[in-house]
């Protein structure tokens, strides 16, 4: 049952990124595994591996699973699905449709357009959704069942210490110097006269496009739009009304349009837009847009600096905490709900210095833990002038992992190990209760011993 630790990687066999494999079904298919009434086809195994290979292209030493490993994960999935049905766990149709729509949008972006996707798949988007709907439902039910099995698992300090003490000292990871850093970011706002001037230019673009059509709109987008992606897509995007990714003003403005219609100037958190509706089907729409960002002058930048300097003074005087100030004032959506903190890939707020942007390294190098910087002006990834203050919370020196400095990391690993052990025990207890079939082609697979025993027992019961 060691394969449980990577179950999450293989449960998502309903991925739309396997479109080409799905459109070229294996001719000589057959059942290679079964749990209860849930079957596993050879094509399921092969398509999963093909999909993982495709997603791993360009990676160094990618971890491509064997057919045996994928079969084990599929057996696990089917067992979880059976138990979910037995426990009356359900997944709403709305949740499935939202997940399908999200995957469709991602895949359209990967292939470039809806037409290209449909040509490669040999099916319409609606047919693809029908093909994958049941696989997505299975995946969701299996995920929910797995969460139900481990949701009550907790870890105590005594267990964390015992887990840590089992690790050979020469195997403990070594961490470079790490820091905890938070920020409050404010975007200087252009004054009304400048915004009105840019808005008039946008209305001129609108008149030109209304007179000359969609091709003119696309050309105007390429010439004038300040959307960084415009060179690749001509300002075109696929939207879904229920997708929270998009700015609300942009999304609602787009869905008020009819096909071929161009919006008035719409103001979002990114700047000013005009939007052209290319096509629409229900909650799905394809649009083009032109984005202009009204420039800010030194006066607006200095006003923002003064505002942040006042906020900094209030924090230092104890009138407001840094976290409260982030929630109240910061324009940085990515850190607004984490008290302004930067975080690493593992979710920890301790990060190495190389994970900070280069504009932050210089002030941090002259600060001490507990310091709050003076307002700093820098250019963000969209080349906009932004002002921020930085809170240098704590610093860890280079060290070997230990309970004092790394308790949360160790506790998280100990908790995951305990959950894995719980899942393994659950499967050992439940596998004998299922009808199991494993094809003879997989008789030499390591890790399937418990499943094979159940299959043999099922075969004997049939003989009797």
Number of domains: 3
Assigned CATH architecture of the largest domain: Orthogonal Bundle
By DSSP, the count of extended strands is 13
Tell the overall outline. flat
Helix/strand class: alpha+beta
- Number of helix segments? 18
CATH homologous superfamily designation of the largest domain: Porin chaperone SurA, peptide-binding domain
Major sheet size, sense and barrel closure: 4 strands, antiparallel
CATH topology of the largest domain: Triger factor/SurA peptide-binding fold
Output the CATH class name of the largest domain. Answer: Mainly Alpha
C-alpha-based Rg, rounded: 28 Å
- Mean pLDDT figure: 86
**Helix fraction?**
40-55%
Beta-strand share of residues: 15-25%
**Cα-to-Cα separation, first versus last residue:** 29 Å
Strand order in the largest sheet: 9-4-11-10
Low-confidence stretches: 2-14, 23-27
How does this model look, in words?
By secondary structure, the chain is α+β, with helices and mostly antiparallel strands. It has 3 domains: 180 residues, Orthogonal Bundle (Triger factor/SurA peptide-binding fold), CATH 1.10.4030; 118 residues, Chitinase A, domain 3 (Roll), CATH 3.10.50.40; 101 residues, Chitinase A, domain 3 (Roll), CATH 3.10.50. Helices cover 50% and strands 15% of the residues. α4 crosses α7 and α5 packs across α7. The longest helix has 28 residues. It is flat and about 90 Å long.
């Amino acid at each position: 049952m060691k394969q449980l630790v990577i179950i999450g990687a293989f449960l998502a066999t309903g991925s739309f990124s396997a479109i080409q494999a799905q459109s070229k079904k294996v001719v000589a298919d057959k059942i290679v595994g079964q749990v209860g009434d849930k079957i596993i086809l050879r094509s399921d195994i092969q398509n999963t591996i093909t999909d993982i290979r495709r997603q791993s292209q360009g990676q160094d030493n990618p971890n491509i699973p064997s057919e045996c490993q994928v079969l084990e994960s599929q057996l696990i999935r089917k067992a979880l699905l059976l138990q979910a049905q037995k426990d009356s766990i359900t997944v709403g149709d709305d949740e499935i449709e939202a997940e399908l729509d999200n995957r469709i949008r991602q895949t359209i972006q990967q292939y470039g357009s809806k037409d290209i996707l449909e040509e490669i798949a040999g099916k319409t988007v609606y047919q693809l959704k029908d093909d994958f709907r049941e696989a997505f439902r299975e995946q969701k039910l299996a995920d929910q069942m797995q969460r139900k099995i481990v949701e009550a698992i907790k870890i105590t300090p005594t267990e964390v210490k015992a887990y840590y003490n089992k690790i050979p000292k020469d195997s403990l990871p070594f961490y470079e110097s790490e820091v905890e850093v938070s920020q409050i970011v404010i975007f200087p706002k252009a004054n009304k006269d400048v915004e009105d001037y840019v808005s008039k230019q946008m209305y001129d673009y609108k008149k030109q496009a209304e007179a000359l059509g969609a091709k003119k709109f696309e050309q105007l987008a390429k010439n004038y739009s300040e959307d960084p992606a415009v060179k690749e897509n001509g300002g075109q995007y696929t939207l879904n009304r229920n997708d929270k990714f998009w700015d609300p003003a942009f999304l609602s403005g787009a869905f008020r349009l009819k096909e071929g219609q161009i919006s008035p100037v719409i103001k979002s958190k990114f700047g000013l837009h005009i939007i052209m509706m290319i096509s629409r089907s229900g909650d799905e729409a394809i649009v083009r847009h032109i984005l202009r960002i009204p420039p800010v002058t030194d006066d607006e930048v200095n006003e923002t600096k003064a505002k942040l300097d006042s906020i900094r003074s209030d924090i230092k005087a104890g009138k407001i905490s840094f976290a409260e100030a982030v929630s109240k004032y910061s324009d940085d959506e990515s850190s607004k709900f984490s008290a302004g903190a930067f975080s690493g890939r593992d979710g920890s707020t301790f990060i190495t210095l190389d994970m900070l942007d280069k504009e932050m390294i210089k002030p941090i190098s002259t600060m001490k833990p507990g310091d709050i910087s003076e307002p700093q002006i820098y250019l963000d990834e969209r080349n906009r002038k932004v002002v921020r203050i930085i809170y240098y919370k704590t610093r860890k020196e280079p060290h070997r992992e230990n309970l004092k400095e790394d308790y949360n990391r160790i506790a998280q690993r100990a908790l995951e190990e305990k959950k894995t052990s719980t899942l393994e025990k659950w499967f050992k207890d439940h596998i004998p209760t299922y009808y199991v079939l494993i094809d003879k082609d997989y008789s030499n697979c390591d890790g399937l011993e418990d499943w094979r025993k159940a299959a043999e027992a099922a075969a004997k019961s049939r003989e009797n």
